[in-house]
Amino acid sequence: MPEERRSRLSAALREGERVTPLELFFDLIFVLALTQCTALMSHHPSWSGLAQGLLVLGVLWWTWVGYAWLTSLIDPEEGAVRLVMFGAMAALLIVSLCVPEAFGDLALVFALAYGAVRVAHIGLFMLASPDDDALRHSVLGLAASTAIAVTLLVTASFFDGLAQGALWALALLLDMGGPYIFGSRGWKLAPGHFAERHGLIVIIALGESIVAIGVAAAGALTLGIGAAAVLGVALAAALWWAYFDIVAIVSGRRLVEAEPGQAQNEMARDSYSYLHLPMIAGIVLVALGLKKTIGHFDDHLDAVPAFALLGGIALYLLGLVAFRYRHVHSVNRQRLLLAAVLLILVPVAMEVPAVVALATANVLIWAMIVYETRLYGETRHAVRRPGTAES
């Protein structure tokens, strides 16, 4: 095998490379998975349905994170890797199709298909680390935690109710805890690619909220539905602004500037692999709230949709607060305060028409954005101008 071809399957970094078309193609399956999570919670608008949807989302998120680390190491466009990626996409499609019945009749199929996705992931990592003992050690640790998680999900398929949920929660905890238990020294990544990949998945999740608006408004367009739909898009735009205006830029630079090795790996693990999960979960909850709001804009929201709408925004903001703290060790007080206010307003949202609750959420989050834009002033412009020193 020529040296150039071997290097594509070695542990060489992808420094300087942008996200490839195949990675974006892979992420399309994740779009379906997010849609299915929203559908699961929408069809079971109860606290147990909400918990099930979030557990499924956690499992799916950890799968996506694994492939983000993988494709930050090896080129997914290389022939053999490309074929394995296609196979993983097929398995992930089956996983996504099983989501609505992941705690029901398709629980075992979900677990087995999920296992196939993870086996492909581990196999490619093993292929990428023949001469790197540290990376091989980390991959073997990941393989152990993955095997335990898949076994627990298979076992959970033979139970129902609280026992099944507890096994799911344990599987997710142990799987996500693997990098902490086995350490992060051996992992490798291209930091610019890694940060960009996570930014794109935030956009994909926000796209799901737009899809939820379209699904809820399908077949009918009145003045009220149109107004609620516009407010829904405005809310999605506010969530986009809160992440991409400054936070994503500063955090991406911090990751690139971090010392390669354990320090950079732990920053990537904590701030992207872990702390992006509450952001994505918040967006999915908002999508659920929007779906219920658009279709019944003049009705009062029940407890679960009201919590999904306002609590989802709060969870997203809390994820951003933690994300910022991990990078610059300071707390964004206005976002923390707004998250608390939104949670306090959940009971109020149940007593007013849904469109009023949505409008109130818009006013609050856009007021925060205007305040931050004025507060940061020249610092914001300096951060956003390429090549300008960060304040």
Explain the overall architecture:
Helix 2 packs antiparallel against helix 3 and helix 3 packs parallel to helix 5. The chain contains 16 helices and no strands. It has 2 domains: 188 residues, no CATH class; 186 residues. It has 391 residues and is an all-alpha fold.
Q: What labels describe this entry?
A:
16 helices; globular; disordered N terminus; 2 domains; 391 residues; mainly alpha
Brief write-up:
The chain is mostly helical and 391 residues long.
Distance between the termini: 49 Å
What coarse outline follows from CA principal-axis ratios?
Answer: globular
How many domains? The number is: 2
The pLDDT mean sits at 90
Structural class category: mainly alpha
Main β-sheet, in a few words?
A: none
Helix content: over 70%
Rounded to the nearest angstrom, the radius of gyration is 21 Å
- Report the total helices: 16
Oligomer: single chain
Reading the helices and strands in chain order gives HHHHHHHHHHHHHHHH
The fraction of residues assigned to DSSP E strands is under 5%
Are there runs of 5+ residues with pLDDT below 50, and where?
Answer: 1-13
Number of strands: 0
